[in-house]
Design brief:
Distance between the termini: 13 Å
Radius of gyration: 19 Å
Number of strands: 0
Largest sheet: none
Helix content: over 70%
Shape: globular
Structural class: mainly alpha
Number of helices: 6
Number of domains: 1
């Protein structure tokens, strides 16, 4: 039984858990309000969009294994992904800004938010840097799977905002729960699925 693919995914798993834990702990320990925790989850998602776009651009070679140029297709994939995701992120950001901070007047501790985001970005750089190192070079099909996997983040962001707004009508502190539960589940489930697939491929290769 080949356990190397599972062991190789542990650094990314640790980083994913760390990224999701920072806003949750800050809120649960009452360091930040629910709105600030939501802001951190939102900013983390925006950072991931840029990281994945850069990752596709950097680790997909300009020429495939057959010697055919794929630079144009690679660049179009990265640009379309970043543009599409940032448009959705901008819409969500506008909604959050108008619905929460503009209407409710919640003060944002930008200094602590900046420090927390710096730690989150470092963890994300570790996670995606390690993944890029393991996956390089990446072909177009794998790059498309990568960006499709990450699109779940925006879906979760939408669901979290919608459910959170309904919960906020009953109790404002419940606003952040959809993000903690749904986003962490999707992040971990996606990574576990990738680990399972790599483990199966490695064991099938050993059996041949």
């Amino acid at each position: 039984m080949n356990l190397k693919p599972i062991a190789a995914s542990l650094p990314r798993l640790a980083a994913v858990l760390g990224v999701n834990t920072i806003p949750a702990l800050g809120w649960l320990r009452e360091t930040w309000s629910a709105e600030v925790a939501m802001l951190l989850y939102y900013l983390e998602t925006v950072a991931v969009i840029l990281l994945v776009g850069a990752m596709v651009r950097l680790i997909v070679p300009a020429v495939d294994e057959r010697g055919v140029s794929i630079a144009g297709e690679r660049n179009r994939l990265a640009r379309s992904y970043v543009f599409f995701m940032l448009v959705f992120a901008a819409g969500i950001g506008l909604f959050l800004g108008l619905a929460l901070w503009r209407l409710l007047g919640v003060p944002i501790p930008w200094r602590s938010v900046g420090v927390a985001m710096a730690v989150i970005i470092v963890l994300q750089l570790v996670a995606y840097g390690w993944e890029a190192y393991r996956l390089r070079p990446l072909d177009i099909a794998d790059a498309e799977r990568l960006v499709n996997r990450d699109m779940g983040r925006i879906t979760i962001l939408h669901l979290g905002v919608l459910f959170g707004m309904f919960l906020a009508a009953a109790r404002l502190a419940w606003f952040v729960w959809p993000f903690i539960i749904l986003k962490t589940m999707v992040d971990v489930a996606g990574l576990v699925d990738q680990m399972r697939r790599k483990w199966r491929e490695a064991n099938e290769a050993d059996a041949q």
